[in-house]
Specification:
- The chain is of the alpha+beta class.
- It has one domain (25-166).
- Helix content is 33%, strand content 11%.
- The chain has 5 helices and 6 strands.
- It has helices spanning 43-54, 72-87, 96-102, 108-123, 176-189, and strands spanning 3-9, 12-17, 25-26, 31-32, 39-40, 158-159.
- The strands form 3 sheets. Strands 1-2 form a two-stranded antiparallel sheet. Strands 3-4 form a two-stranded antiparallel ribbon.
- A hairpin with a 4-residue loop joins strand 3 (25-26) and strand 4.
- The longest helix has 16 residues, at 72-87.
């Protein structure tokens, strides 16, 4: 193979010839790996990944045979390398098996974001005026550094089946006097301006 995907620039994939660089080149199997690509998540895929992960042990970066096709194969390889680095860091607080199990779930990135926020705020004794609905559903860890929580960006990249951007084009129903009330309230709150 003479070329390999090396990076994304905007929405375009850049190609770098293999003879010029080893970026994106898996030296173990001599196949190119792809920088980031999503895989559509399904419950069946989760089960397949769990079955594979159950057979894996530390150090994960040494696994040559990853029985999935790209881009998932490359995503798992990145995850394994990141998991090893995390486990070798000074204060990893999330159990290794929790990360392996969670990496198969499409909602796990959101969970890690919440754990990171709660751990940071409880470690530094932040007092909130109000707590989010999920606050009691996630653990808090005493952390020394924000990196003590595994970074969700190293998880396999699953396609989200969310089309919430479509809601931006919905027609809104409102009364004209609401706009007038809003504008008059805003003008009372803002300093005097002639150009508004």
């Amino acid at each position: 193979m003479s070329e390999v995907y090396a990076s994304y620039v905007g929405a375009q994939a850049s190609r770098i010839p293999l003879k010029d660089t080893l970026i994106g080149y898996d030296q173990l199997e001599h196949e190119p790996w792809y920088p980031r690509g999503y895989t559509t998540w399904t419950p069946e895929l989760k089960e397949e990944m769990l079955h594979f992960f159950e057979k894996c042990n530390y150090p994960y970066r040494s696994y040559e045979e990853i029985p999935f096709k790209d881009p998932l194969r490359s995503e798992i390889r990145r995850f394994f390398i990141s998991l090893d680095a995390y486990m070798e860091s000074p204060h990893p607080v999330i159990p290794e098996k929790d990360l392996l199990y969670g990496a198969t779930d499409i909602e796990f990135a959101e969970y890690l974001k919440r754990v990171k926020r709660k751990s940071f705020e409880t470690t530094w004794h932040v007092e909130n005026f109000e707590y989010p609905d999920w606050w009691n559903d996630v653990p808090a860890y005493r952390i020394h550094d924000i990196g003590d929580i595994f970074n969700y960006s190293y998880l396999p990249f699953f396609k989200m089946e969310v089309d919430d951007y479509l809601y931006g084009d919905l027609d809104l129903t409102y009364k004209e006097d609401w706009i007038a009330t809003f504008k008059s309230t805003l003008l009372r709150m803002l300093p005097d301006r002639e150009d508004f």
